[in-house]
Hints:
The complex is a heterodimer.
Chain A: H1 2-21, E1 34-37, E2 43-46, E3 54-56, E4 63-68, E5 73-78, E6 85-86, E7 97-100, E8 106-109, H2 118-124, E9 132-141, E10 144-151, E11 154-159, E12 164-165, E13 168-170, E14 194-196, E15 198-200, E16 204-206, E17 230-232, E18 236-242, E19 245-250, E20 253-255, E21 260-261, E22 263-272, E23 279-282, E24 288-294, E25 296-303, E26 309-315, E27 332-338, E28 343-351, E29 361-362, E30 368-372, E31 378-383, E32 401-402, E33 414-416, E34 422-423, E35 440-444, E36 450-455, E37 460-466, H3 478-481, E38 482-489, E39 503-510, E40 524-530, E41 533-538
Chain B: E1 2-3, H1 10-22, H2 28-37, E2 56-57, E3 72-77, H3 79-83, H4 88-93, E4 98-102, E5 110-114, E6 124-126, E7 129-130, E8 149-156, H5 160-163, E9 170-176, E10 184-192, E11 196-207, E12 210-221, E13 225-228, E14 231-234, E15 237-239, E16 244-247, E17 252-265, E18 268-282, E19 295-311, E20 317-334, E21 344-365, E22 368-385, E23 391-406, E24 411-422, E25 428-440, E26 443-454, H6 458-462, E27 478-490, E28 500-512, E29 515-519, E30 525-529, E31 533-547, E32 550-563, E33 576-584, E34 590-599, E35 602-603, E36 610-612, E37 615-625, E38 640-648, E39 667-675
Parallel strand pairs in B: 6-9
Antiparallel strand pairs in B: 1-2, 3-8, 4-5, 6-7, 8-9, 10-11, 10-39, 11-12, 12-17, 13-16, 14-15, 17-18, 18-19, 19-20, 20-21, 21-22, 22-23, 23-24, 24-25, 25-26, 26-27, 27-28, 28-31, 29-30, 31-32, 32-33, 33-34, 34-37, 35-36, 37-38, 38-39
Amino acid sequence: MRRAIRYRLGASIGLVVASLLACEGDGSDGAAPRIDFAPTPDCIRFAGGFPSGFTTLPGGAGEAAVVQFIPTVVLGLSLDSEPPRLLSDSAIPEFPELVCSRCGGLLRVDSDSDGIADACRSDELGFSCLSPVAGSLFALEPTRVALSTSSYEQLLFIDPRDGMLQPVELETPAPGASFDPADWPFWPPSGIPTIRSGLSTRACVYADGLLDSLGDPIGPNRFCSPDRNGFVTRFTAGAARIGDHLLVATSNLIRSSRAQFAPGTLLLFEYDTGSDPPRVRPRADGPILLTSGYNPTTVTPYTTPSGRALALIGVSGSIALGTGPDLVRTDSAIDVVDVAMGRLIATIPLGRAGLGFSPIAIDSNRRVGLIGAATRRALFGIDLAALDDPLLGLGPEALPIRLDGSVSGYPDARLYSGDSPLPLPKRSTGPPDSQCTTQTSVALSQIGPSGVASDFCDGTLSILHLDLPADRTASLDPGTAVTIERLQAVTAPLVDDATGLVRAIDRVVIRPGRPGVDFDGPDVHFTAGLPEGAVCGVRIRNP
Amino acid sequence: MFPIRKGRARLLGQAALALFWSLGLATPALHAARGEAESPEGSGTFPDPGSIEEIVVHGEARPTMDVLAGASISRVGTDERLIEGARIDDLLAEMPGVQIRRFGGVGERFEISIRGSRPEQVPVFLDGVRLDTSLTGRSDLSTLCLDVLQEIQVTRGAGAARAGSGAIGGVVNLVTRNAKARPETRLRVSAGSFGSIEGSLRHARRIDEWSVSGSYCGFHTDGDYRFQRARQFIGGLPTGSARVEKRVNNESDRHTGLFRIGHPIGGGRVRLTQLVSHLDRGLPGLETNPRTRAKERNLSSLTSLGLELPVSLLPSGEFEAVLSHRFERNRFEDPLPFLAGDPIQTRTEVHGSALRARIGLGFDALSGRHELDLLTEARLDLRQSNETTSRSRAGIALRLELESSWWGDRLRLSPSLRMERFEGLDVEWIPGIVIRIEPLDWIVLRSAIARSYRVPSFQELYLPDKGFERGNEDLLPEEAWSFEIGATLESPFAHPWLDGEVEATWFAGEIENGIAFQLISSNVSAPVNTGRSQTRGYEISLRWTPHPWIRTTATRTVTRAKLESTHEQVVGVAVSQTDFRIELGPRDRLKIVGELHYTGRLPVSQNGAAVLPSRIAYDASASIDLTRFPFLHLERFGRALWLSVRGRNLGNAAIRDSRSFPRPGRNFSVALESVF
């Protein structure tokens, strides 16, 4: 009897124990965990720090879009209010997710909407379990922006008003002399138009005699044809829509710890907005261009006075991580691509400049193009009049033509180069240059001869004044063409005892329209990376 | 066992006993006396129900070097809490002023913060010997198990005079198990959610004059759990989803062994302690960027040889010396790092050797009793890594401390001064004073003011330059002072319903040159001195035992730790924390425990940019000694056979102590412990 009682007791206890141990909760019974991001009077703040992309939206409605880096979300912003506020009035979704059994059984994003988690798709194709990492943002239309992503290399299409992915129709050209579908492994088969929300920028590039940025020869790549020397594109960077084309730069970073880059590439896609959704296909007659240098990071549309559609490619050069003066390892340049021809027609060498990662700012008269620096307190610039010649690149000369005065008959387009940049003033309370290697970005007004340039370390905006001759044939004087009107501190500098304050400013934009007339709020907005991601507004012209 | 009965003079007696032990006056005769005082039931039973928070003092439990200093000291014995299924972090978390930040589920690492400090500002000792490594200045207590410990002691407030560099927030001392007069063996096995199993075996005995104790515990967990994602609210609007997701790569295996042997020598005692711990676990990474294959392997050991001898110069003089060596080897590998960077494989070894010697002299003068303590310490730390060159650092310290008492211990004054110098740094002078007044039998007033500092760790100084991250050899030591004033009131009434105690402390502190990793350039992080921060707050703890079968405790801590640059709460420090615990039942056979843990809003970003709202978590446990039920006939399984069930986060709430490290929902563990 006692034994029976003991057994029953033991069995009961065992049952209870087993039930309890199998009764794990998932933490979902109470309210969902929330993390509140509080704005400041000037800034809207969000997660992740260091917004990787920021752009105004076309249409003149005072709207912009910004990338929340992690978790990745594109936020549409109204710049009318102070601080900026979200355009959406409902929850902003993350990218769709699916369980990927071959990548740890975790939920992974399916950002390109192909019904397979990106990591799974990447692994299936031999690239291991890679998920997209947000990069830059480019406005295509008021309701459509493109977000470049690395790791899972692609360009995503998103509606900034609600953060939803937008469809495009992908069409892979038939095999031809200049196009082999096998070199675009993430694209659908030829002849089968497919709806996706992103286009892959992963492609094989072949050429003999290529060297990486360390001078090592490039041989066959395991992801591409084993019989040909080449590499696979990676680190999708800048992009732009130019007419009926999308141009995407890939910087092809191999190893950041050694500042090792494969040659830079520019991918060319046809973008047909006549259909709904827009149709995109790699350009069949030559979808890939090699840039003149390493690490192309930005693509800026530019139309010459004669109406020629060009793309200005900011080739930053190989840049090492760290601080100090010798981080720029190879030369920088601005490459000029004729979009219709699909060819690199010219290059403007800028020496060891280390171009910044924001697009080139072009003044309202389309005479000057300025770009920030990735490793110093300076700006670089080019004289766009050098591109006015409608026959540029159409002659018998070898392309690309160097526009640095070294080629007879062609002008020197350099205004501020690596050897003679436009220096920006230093804030007296900023960190020493030996500690903080700054980076700058620049924006120019589209209604007047002015602009602003940001300083990452100092937390300042330099207010620029442009004095440009009306005659496009008149040469520019670097000493007077762009001058610093004043310096305005807008955030704390990146010094040791500024912990917790808004700082680390990066992308800067000037709101379209006339301050005080078309709008009352701040006329300049910039992103800040610390302590959280932020977009802040400041009045520069409209006190 | 030698339970200290709750009474009007309990605190005073406890303090005097602590002082007595710390001065090393434990003569063999006294040991024998304590042996007689042990419970005939052995430690399979509990002390008086009125002493939930009480220390349970065994023979030579006090460490050779008493590193506890200051006005606010908490102690908690482990045996009774082990039976409930508690872990080290549970015991620490319930102490006033202590916040524990957990970074995952069972077996995951956690951090200790005392009065708003960072974890490297809380040195951890094992029997008075430093456990934290010079590599990070921190101790990873998740590499230990509670089973090898007998008691956990915490000093809140600056303790640098005794503990040296780093003791800015407080000091934790872990006391290992010792041998009692009667041999004792404890065997515990437990199983829990997430595929967790744990087992321990502890044995302690005396063999002639030798006292020997050995403990082993092994732990394994599959560790993976489901959690609910956090939603980011921007301007009140949610982004992302609150989906339930699985946290992977949490598998963990841990083995810890501790051996201690002691023998009388020349009227004193010699003791050898050896701790070895091995940990092999996955590192799941951030919630938003999980690392599915990152692993760490950690092997650590601590060897200490202690000697206590009477000094013949004065009748109550004593000499103590401890020679110790700490070794830690950490291997980390991640074949798939973020953004498809280079695979990471690092191996770091740290050796820390220390020699401490102390002379204590007792004498009567100026109508009072005085204990004069002179300590000297030498330390040599060495770091080796496959990533960079070896580094070493030597340090020396001298300390003078006088503890004076008058009027039968009603007034105690304890000034101290420590001089410490580390290679490459200036001499640091660390003064401090503790005052304790007992105007009436039921009230104790105490106050302390002290300076403290922390030398930068090897990691902070010499982290190899990886381009995006590096050390900073120009760092200045953190400089701090702290002040506190408090009172302890015991119920002066004999009625059982009025058996209680209230302790309240107000504290303030300031840290100059606080060290934190910051972005110093567009793509480089490095540790920098971040300026000044201030801390103000209070701690209240309450104990009430209205009936021997009803025991309650509550603690509340409010900490306002603010950076001078922003005047906002320091990241990771909850503004307030309240813990309530009720224990029901006769402790020696049945115990049902309910716990409530409230954590106030928690900044997870500097300057209050991002905040986790307040939350409440509920835990409970039930324990029963099966041998107390004769009809089960289980006496042959030992003097006691405890079966316990513990549930954590019973509300199944989504809780987390940091932005990117979710904790599991409701989970359970079941344990069986036998005492022979």
